[in-house]
Design a protein that fits this description.
- The chain has 401 residues and is of the alpha+beta class.
- It has a single domain, classed as FAD/NAD(P)-binding domain, CATH 3.50.50.
- Helices cover 33% and strands 31% of the residues.
- The protein has ten helices and 22 strands.
- The chain has helices at residues 14-23, 67-75, 122-136, 181-185, 245-249, 252-262, 311-332, 339-366, 372-386, 389-399, and strands at 4-10, 30-34, 48-50, 53-55, 62-65, 88-90, 92-97, 103-107, 117-121, 139-143, 147-153, 156-161, 166-174, 190-206, 213-218, 223-228, 234-241, 270-273, 277-286, 290-291, 294-296, 302-303.
- The strands form four sheets. Strands 7, 8, 14, 15, 16, 17, 18, 19 and 22 form a nine-stranded mixed sheet that branches. Strands 1, 2, 10, 11, 12, 13, 20 and 21 form an eight-stranded mixed sheet that branches. The chain has a three-stranded antiparallel sheet with strand order 5-9-6.
- Helix 1 (14-23) runs parallel beside helix 3.
């Protein structure tokens, strides 16, 4: 890694890589550093099943990429590098409450219908972004380097890493996730609380085809989403609940039967399940996204509940907005670390991010109770919404970015 750069991005996940790709033709000197080893594309196993154990060849972490994020990834030439046979496009979405009788349906079937979103493995998006950056030759990579210290200078920061490397930058970008080291070292405070839920994620094979429809139901344990993958009988699931130990420890057959029953057998029997993973869910929002010569993007600035699948899309929107502001500043000869400039990014993104976080908190709370009065109100609301095409169209446009 070069000792000096204009923009130093800490964190080579989806958001950090997309920012680097968006800046790769801006004539800014950009470097990106990550504590992980360089990702390698797995030689995925072909889909097969041994009893109830499924080897789906699908990474457990996927993102629901909305049309706005797809357009951004296309503009920075990454979307075109994701294999088409790995992108699942859904044109319909169905949401219902297992403790009521109402439901909401969005979109319509058919190849001519507009896409509501695409389900793509995070690893494939990362691989495409890295390929874009390697081809550009304009971004300096450093893997397996962990941030250890930052020293403020009038013109930016001197950044120290645990392997002894140092780098000076005009703008330090924290794209290093919910436990951001950049945010901590720069003393950018957050509001944070636990959802008291844990997300269980895996891939399952279902008896009935998903017909490119994303489905989510609110169960007594928590929201359960079946996200359609490219194979008609494979879905990625995200199930948020208070306790997952019992489900994580279940035999595969018992888990599949319990999952199908909780999902009201909407896709028939669950025939197989891949390895299960879990992670805690927290709501977190930085009180400030920026300070002089430093900015936070993605999960470093905000994390939300996954029930609407908007976390990655908010991060891509951060990267898009910041890249536009920095590229414009470069053309106009402005200092990219100037606080007034960075505050324009904060104003542009904080309102949308906070609105989405508030909406997720509202839905999580209203569906996290068995109070009969609340159940009646929320089912009445769902029936009203499902019958109002204008409101559904507005919600669809908002979800599309």
């Amino acid at each position: 890694m070069k000792s000096e750069c204009d923009v130093l991005i800490i964190g080579a996940g989806l958001v950090g890589l997309s920012l680097a790709a968006a800046l790769s033709q801006s004539h800014l000197r950009v470097a990106i550093v990550d504590a992980r080893p360089k990702p390698v594309q797995d030689n995925a196993l072909p889909k097969r099943r041994d009893g109830y154990l499924l080897h789906a060849g699908v990474a457990p972490r996927v993102s629901a990429v909305n049309p706005s994020s797809q357009a951004f990834l296309s503009r920075i030439r990454a979307w075109q590098l994701i294999p088409e046979n790995k992108i699942s496009t859904y044109r319909e979405m169905c949401v219902w409450d297992t403790r009521g009788t109402s439901h909401i349906e969005f979109g319509s079937p058919g190849e001519q219908s507009p896409a509501l979103g695409h389900i793509v493995e995070n690893q494939l998006i990362e691989n495409a972004l890295i390929e874009v950056l390697v081809e550009s030759g304009n971004v300096d990579f450093q893997w397996q380097s962990r941030l250890s210290e930052i020293v403020y200078q009038e013109s930016g920061y001197q950044v120290h890493f645990d392997d002894g490397r140092k780098a000076a930058c005009s703008l330090l970008v924290g794209a290093d996730g919910g436990n951001s080291h950049v945010r901590e070292l720069c003393s950018l405070r957050t509001v944070r609380w636990s959802y008291q839920q844990i997300a269980l994620v895996t891939t399952v094979e279902t008896e009935l085809g998903h017909h490119n429809t994303a489905r989510q139901c609110f169960t007594k344990d928590g929201p359960l989403a079946f996200l359609p993958l490219i194979d008609e009988h494979l879905c990625s699931i995200v199930w948020s609940m208070q306790h997952v130990d019992e489900l994580m420890g279940m035999e595969n057959q018992a888990f599949c039967e319990h999952l199908a029953a909780s999902f009201e057998n909407r896709l028939g029997r669950v025939l197989g399940v891949d390895k299960r993973f879990s992670f805690p869910l927290v709501q977190q929002h930085a009180l400030q996204y920026v300070d002089e010569h430093v900015v936070l993007i993605g999960d470093a600035a905000h994390t939300i509940h996954p029930l609407a699948g908007q976390g990655a899309n908010l991060g891509f929107a951060d990267a898009r907005a910041l890249s536009q502001i920095l590229a414009g500043a470069r053309l106009e000869g402005k200092a990219i670390g100037d606080l007034a400039l960075l505050k324009s990014y904060q104003r542009r993104r904080r309102a949308e991010n906070m609105a989405m976080a508030s909406a997720m908190e509202f839905f999580k709370r209203i569906y996290n109770t068995d109070n009969p009065g609340v159940i009646w109100i929320r089912n009445a609301g769902m029936r009203f919404l499902n019958g109002n095409e204008q409101l559904k169209s507005i919600i669809s446009r908002l979800a599309a970015g």
